[in-house]
Amino acid sequence: MSDFVSSFWSYFIGVIALGGIAFCVILLFSQRAWLKSDVDPLGNTGHVWDGDLTELNNPIPRWWTVMYLGLCVVALAVLFLYPGVGAYKGTLEYSAAKQVKAEQLALNEQIKPVFQRFQQMPIAEVAHDAEAREIGQRLFLNNCAQCHGSDARGSGSFPNLADSDWLHGGSPEQILQTITKGRHGMMPPWSSQIKPAEAADIAQYVRSLAGLASNSLRVVPGKRGYDTFCVACHGAEGKGNTAMGAPNLTDNVWLYGSSEAAIVETILNGRQNVMPAQEGILTEDQIRVLTAWVWGLSNPNKRVATK
Ligand code: HEC
Ligand code: HEC
Q1: Which protein residue has the closest C-alpha to ligand 2 atom 5?
Q2: Is 194 a member of any domain?
Q3: Are residues 288 and 257 located together in one domain of the fold?
Q4: Residue 118 lies in a domain
Q5: Is the CB of 299 inside a 6 Å radius of any atom of ligand 2?
Q6: Could you give the dihedral angle defined by the CA atoms of residues 29, 30, 36 and 40, in that order, rounded to the nearest 10 degrees?
Q7: Range of weakest confidence among 51-60, 137-146, 220-229, 251-260
Q8: Which of 280, 279, 274, 278 is CA-nearest to residue 245?
Q9: Mean pLDDT, to the nearest integer, of 54-75?
């Protein structure tokens, strides 16, 4: 696919690339004294200054001109073989992205032996292997820290991975699934069915679930609204549901804040939160070691007897 949004830019670049070469050839041709064999190698304009400063008019040396024409031929050949003339891809079908991909594959092949030792180990065991932990941390810093923080404790809508509170489950299998396939946390918007005042009452009830200060008069109608609209995902007690990625609302761990305003915003407009899938970016081996590293953060003491 071309990166240009309009085909105009493809022609624009094509004209500049080919036009530049054509211009060089025309320029050389217009100065074609070098074609003649009887050129005075020291063309003299006849201008003399200060008695002994003579202005010469040497023609361009022939070797230089031939070299320049040769460069034009090389340039045309490169533009024929490689991308350069607008959206034309070149006969070699070369692309920088393909080159990077090939280099990555070669590198993955090269580092395979390092991961071999972990392939047969249970994840709980990999989590406490010193070498795997080092690799896991480096992978995390390079691929995950920009969202989850370098200490994996998250911030804002990016969840903390070092506590034992899980949106999608904290077993090694669930974490592996999260990292491999990604997750899409979606809290539906309710503004078409819930009025702002009613949402504020529900927010008071949600705050009471978390043990936060709440208005006891508004908690009663709030509970009615909660039981109607929210139990399906967050559960009757507000403890959430990892199968749906619905957070526990009772634990005072908040992605979007616990103020009435923040909760009302969540209820009325919903929330969308995407964890990008890593398959295709990282290898299976890398994802397994990362899974172990993440799992180990909240299971520091579950040491497993080594074989
Ligand atoms: C672009 C930002 C981004 C990057 C990069 C990212 N994540 Fe996430 N991750 C998220 C978001 C957002 C969520 C929450 C999804 C939700 O709300 O359901 C999440 C959720 C998770 C969860 C589930 C947490 C839970 O409570 O169930 C795990 C585990 C996780 N990420 C691990 C990783 C790992 C390991 C990496 C690096 C390979 C990574 N993430 C890279 C944004 C990111
Ligand atoms: C279809 C399932 C579903 C329903 C129904 C639902 N929620 Fe949610 N809710 C979610 C999911 C999933 C998330 C997490 C969004 C994310 O990952 O960012 C969420 C997030 C939240 C949050 C943010 C928690 C935090 O940590 O900041 C609050 C508050 C909340 N919901 C309250 C409610 C209330 C109140 C209702 C009823 C009006 C409701 N939800 C109905 C699925 C649901």
Answers
A1: 230
A2: yes
A3: no
A4: yes
A5: no
A6: -140
A7: 51-60
A8: 274
A9: 88
